[in-house]
Amino acid sequence: MITRIEVSTTVFDSRAALLKKRLQNQGFKKITQVIIKDVYTINKVFPDKRLREIAFAISNPVTQQTNILVEGFQRLSVGIMSHAQFDWAIEVGFLPGVTDNVANTTREIIEDRLKTKFSTDEGVYTSQLLLIKGKLTITEIKKLADTLYNPIISRVHIKNYRDYLRDGGMDRIVPKVKLLQKPDVLNVDLEVADEQLVKIGKAGISNPDGTRRGPLALSLPFMKTIQAHFRNLGRKPTDIELESLAQTWSEHCKHTIFADPIDDIHDGLFKHFIKRATVEIRKKKGKKPSYAKAASFAEVATKAESAGKDFCVSVFKDNSGAIEFDKDYLITHKVETHNSPSALDPFGGAITGIVGVNRDTIGFGLGAKPVANVYGFCFADPRVDIPLYKGPNFTQKMLSSRRIMDGVVDGVNAGGNQSGIPTPLGFLYFDECYRGKPLVFVGTLGIIPKKIKKIPSHMKRAMPGDYIVMVGGRVGKDGIHGATFSSEALDEGSPSTAVQIGDPITQKKMSDALVKEARDQLLYHSITDNGAGGLSCSVAEMAKESGGCSVDLEKVPLKYPGLESWEIWVSESQERMTVAVPPKNWKKFYDLMKRRGVETTVIGTFTDSGKCEVRYNGKTIMDIEMQFLHFGLPRKKLTTSYTPPQNTEPKIVNNKNLTKTFLTMMERLNVSSFSFISQQYDHLVQGNCVLAPLQGRGRVNSDVTVLRPVLSSQKGVILSFGLYPTYSNIDTYHMAASSIDTAVRNVVAAGADLSRVALLDNFCWCSSDDPHRLGQLKRATQACYDIACDYQTPFISGKDSMFNDFKGYDSKGTPIKISIPPTLLVSSLAVIDDITKVISLDVKAPGDFIYILGETYDELGASEYYCMLAELLGNQYLGNRVPTVNAQKNRNLYKAFYRCIQDGLIASSIGVGRGGLAVALAKKSIGGMLGLRVTLSKLHQSVTSLHAALFSESQGRIIVTVAPKNQKIFEHTMKGNSFLNIGKVTKDNKFTVEGLNGKEIVGANISTLYKSYTASFKGY
Questions:
Q1: In the predicted model, is pLDDT for residue 303 greater than 90?
Q2: What is the mean pLDDT of residues 393-402?
Q3: Please, what's the b/e burial string for 858-877 (b: 16 or more CB within 10 A of its CB; e: otherwise)?
Q4: CATH top-level class for 671-681+839-1020?
């Protein structure tokens, strides 16, 4: 029996009011009323009394009213809207198999309250019913419905008033997965022509009905290598073996572009530039030799690394990187990307990204506790909708840029807030090149005791004989081919099954049980997350520690019956960790997880057989040597080409007054406030926030945050980032150099010691099989080595995403390709000894002197100012003079500035970044809600135009304010470095800038400045 419980709000419903306003803004002016009902469809028999108990438990009796309908018979009153009060009913719910977090929680509420259990044939499903009043045609209502759901994960049903009344309401739909085929294992014939091998690698294995399973992302050399291997074995590979190799060898997992030889660099870009920088820096800081290979877990634990000035503990070899926090704790950090899934389903992609990187923290060493999330979103302009299609003939329409932005923002909100992890830092960046594919960066900071029962916590190793234990959520079809899908460009063959939706509530229970209890009892030897490739990657990766594995796949808990064995093996269904539990600890581990409501299952054993063996119902379906699985992929010799572009330099008229230009700059999407995100992302939940995302009385978005991860300690962690995609249009070397300098400078401006700063790199590239794009990548990695070594800032973790291209069709049906600009996000973190010495950006007191540290040059190339001119004038203004980094000079300045902070000489500070000096000064003024009077006549002699003086993005600069009593000692401390006194903080609420000749070029009051700064996202 199917029961529908509909919950309506009897007081003012802000959701309905906001939806009505949004729909009217989208052109549906005829709408006069919108009512929202939350619907819970229950596929289980309950008596009336129990149904009323359920309705009471899932509603607020003070503000809400419920309708209970069983098989079409109404049990309670209709509620607040009679049938005569609406014209259309639209119901939106999930498709079968899509994770429904609210439904999962509701089922648990029912089970706990009624002391009952749902069988595998029973369930709870949620949907949302909209009752709309307004004389819209069927064409208009269908168009409206298209804005409310994503066909990749959702279904929609529409009824007019007459049909709704005739049918007794909406249909009773149970979106249950029904897999009718009998699971089977296929042998795949690879003794075919190369053309067929290419087709298998691109479109996937052929099903018995002739359809293809989806991309393996294996090029011909990879397919030929696999063909030769199994030819030597004298047999055909099974489908699960081929799928497993595809996951393990995918660009997403093996990072072949970074690893393969390129030009004359035989060890690849990663080892030659990124890793080598860290190795050399650590050596110079005093790194001691690594521990030798050990024969037992206990021996592994006692042979840990130790260091003097080297604060790095674990780099490039675990789920996150880790540095020393103090004598008792380590700090971990990891930043991931979730770009392709977010293009198809923004909410699912983003929430999966954030809970996934949370698991990277939980999977570090023996398990770190997540203490903060960070984010960064690169979108196309959400105010403009330019239709794009994945398929020909206007099929498979892509979501609008506004839908993508809203979904991504909501996804990270849900993942972070529902997990109880603060989100104090992030950024938005906009460029039309992200219209085909957005970039979604998500990161997590973690903390872990240095030792667990005298065992170094960053050491882990699965040992032969340990049970392979899957902990957390169940396995379904969601997330299949996620790793291989993310290794290719987005096109019409991109599978919807690659998108999954994370469940932060299930993961929170698992995380707490593991990190807060099982870890501290040393109940397991090793742990990692089930991310890309699912079990195929997590089990096989951990098996490298022991030397092999043996898996019984039928033991894996499933969301629904009927999955193929290969689907179980590669599915990326969320909320799962793989743990190596010694048999002696199994009962204790299982009992603990059961008490905490976390599903836990032994699915096999770690061995030292040298093989990855998988059985299904007693039959061996996978038998691959570990050596071939992990190291058998062919190495491709990559070649590059690079020709520096010659761009047109715009001719700019030196206006006498630039106030209007300045205020327009403050309204730019890449400059303006995005407080609508900061206000909905909880940054106070763990009580560890020292420097908040919105700073000062004016609540300005900051590029820096400071955390106190151990509340009993005065020590803190400073986090920031650097990102300049437009610079790639001139030179990726300077793009990368500027990103590093900005990430470093931002934490230094807040109080970090340069000698204790660590970095993370996230490369998001495009068309990475193109020699020109590879040439750009090579230059960027060269810059990473050069600047990191100059600053002595090691990289501790990173991630790359190499094919961020969209191949599809425009609004005219013409084939197009949209590639992102080569984008590098550099994240920075530093441990500080005293959080009371942290500096915020907002000016503090009238009379304080304003100083600019560092030198300003005429470097407007690819700047936000040139981008603004291009949009206003309809031209592509890039220029050629991109900012360059003088790391040696900047290093000396940053060290001197740190001494000033330690001596209490700095009242406020901010790094000069996007938008240049004018934007940095404006943020300081808005932050403190105080006026500034600045003169630019003393700037570096190479600055010859007002535009460059205001908007140049020259690197290495910090704007600070200093109290008059500290002026002399400040200038004495900074002696030998470039610094200029350019003005004062005033109390007249006027923002005034004098030009190179001493005449006023910008004048505005603070209220006008604030209005411009907050205009772009007002109402979001």
A1: no
A2: 90
A3: bbbbbbbbbbbbeeeeeeeb
A4: alpha beta
